[in-house]
Specification:
Layout lengths: L1 H32 L5 H11 L3 H4 L1 H13 L1 H10 L1 H20 L6 H31 L19 H25 L3 H31 L5 H5 L5 H18 L3 H23 L2 E3 L9 E2 L7 H28 L12
Antiparallel strand pairs: 1-2
Helix pairs in contact: 1-2, 1-4, 1-7, 1-8, 1-12, 4-5, 6-7, 7-8, 8-9, 8-12, 9-11, 11-12
């Protein structure tokens, strides 16, 4: 039973890593959409993610489904406690998706400006709130004896969670700028290099600040690292990855930088997983009220059945992602600008 729980903890983490990397560049492109002024360039940004964005969001849906199936108590606590925040995220993602479909349906400047704003703001809000949610999980939530959330929406907007949220925002902004660099043409390539050159420096500084603040104010996040000091290699690799991303970005090697950025995001998610393990929803009042992989999991039969489904289904998801990126490889051309 314990082995199955650990496996499902890892599988949920993998799905969230996939979402962070794949939809992360979509969100990052959307953030920079607000700073691009020419209509043709904005259309090119939308076209660059057009073949990918809806498939990328499948990773989030699959992650939510896996969480519901494997750890239903966690699903119930998080989705009830984060209800308003999740509705804001959902609204932001809907507006972003609708803008991709509707922007090119009207010719007036006002129509396009509205959907441009919806795309950029929706992407920015989602990127920030995902980070804030992660920051609250790292910090811990106020839970009662029944392991139910006792705070409010404003409880979630605490300084530590906001710091993590802003750090994640610039992480995705860097990721998206690098994606722009090898998908776009013309002036957008120079713009993407400038954008990534700015955002990675801010990301690096915020990552260091977040690490120091975590060490001082959230000592529980380092218990697993103290128990196995070799795990400190993970944050070390994250730092090296951010620096290498910046070096490649400043050299204009966007594709290599994007690959390093993807690996860095995966390492950051691994770092968080190590920090909270075996808890999925730590409680502010101590481990007795926390939801762990042991007290919040489904039955042995459910975990086994879902594992078989995951083993069968995941190769198809991976194959689709590989196919779509190969099929639409290369730079965006003028013929693609139908947004």
């Amino acid at each position: 039973m314990e082995t199955l729980q650990v496996i499902w903890f890892a599988l949920v983490a993998v799905l969230l890593v996939g979402y962070a990397i794949l939809d992360g560049f979509d969100l990052g492109v959307g953030i920079w959409h607000l700073f691009v002024k020419k209509d043709e360039q904005r259309r090119m940004l939308m076209a660059s993610i057009g073949p990918y964005w809806d498939g990328n969001e499948v990773w989030l849906l699959t992650g939510g489904g896996a969480l519901f199936a494997a750890f239903p108590h966690v699903y119930a606590t998080v989705f009830s406690g984060f209800y308003l925040a999740l509705m804001l995220v959902l609204f932001a993602l809907i507006m972003r998706a609708v803008s991709l479909e509707f922007r090119g349906k009207g010719q007036s400047a006002a129509w396009r400006r509205f959907w441009d704003g919806a795309f950029g703001i929706g992407s920015s809000v989602a990127a920030l709130l995902f980070g804030v949610a992660l920051g609250n999980i790292m910090r811990g939530l106020p839970l009662d004896a029944h392991m139910e959330f006792t705070g409010t929406f404003f409880t979630l907007l605490n300084p530590f969670a906001l710091l993590v949220g802003v750090t994640g925002f610039f992480m995705l902004a860097t990721h998206g700028a690098l994606f722009m660099g090898f998908k776009a043409e013309g002036e957008l390539v120079a713009l993407s290099q400038r954008f990534s050159g700015i955002s990675w420096v801010v990301f690096l500084a915020l990552y260091v600040v977040t690490g120091v603040v975590s060490f001082i104010s959230q000592p529980q996040l380092f218990e697993n690292y103290h128990a196995a000091p070799y795990l400190y290699a993970v944050p070390g690799l994250v730092l090296a990855g951010i620096v290498m991303t910046g070096i490649l970005a400043t050299k204009g090697e966007s594709f290599k930088g994007f690959l390093v950025s993807s690996a860095t995001i995966a390492l950051i998610m691994l770092q968080v997983a190590i920090s909270i393990f075996p808890y999925l929803v730590p409680a502010l009042d101590g481990p007795d009220r926390s939801l762990s992989i042991y007290n919040a999991s489904s039955s042995d039969l459910t975990l086994k059945a879902m594992l078989v489904i995951a083993i069968i289904g995941m190769p198809f998801v991976l194959a689709y992602n590989v196919w779509v990126h190969r099929a639409f490889a290369g730079k965006v051309s003028m013929e693609d600008l139908h947004y």
